[in-house]
Write a structure and sequence with these properties.
Structural class: mainly alpha
Shape: rod-shaped
Helix content: 40-55%
Number of strands: 2
Number of helices: 3
Length: about 70
């Protein structure tokens, strides 16, 4: 048997009304839109260079040129 009322801080609340309000809260949260901090730009790099691991696994010609300048 489900309780019809629930006591919160000594005040009786109808259980079904609380459940209904909670569902409305969850729906409102799902509809909320998160704003971006900055505009996203198109990444023109090759797909292998989008991540640090990709750049490490597949270094490009320019990577080797930069390394040779540092050693001199």
């Amino acid at each position: 048997m489900n309780p019809r009322y629930i006591l919160i801080d000594g005040k009786p609340y109808v259980w079904n009304e609380l459940v209904k309000l909670r569902r409305e809260q969850l729906l409102a949260r799902a509809r909320q839109r998160q704003l971006t901090l900055f505009d996203l730009r198109l990444d023109a790099r090759p797909a292998s260079e989008h991540t640090a691991s990709g750049r490490f696994l597949e270094p490009s010609l320019f990577t080797f040129l930069d390394d040779s300048r540092r050693q001199v």
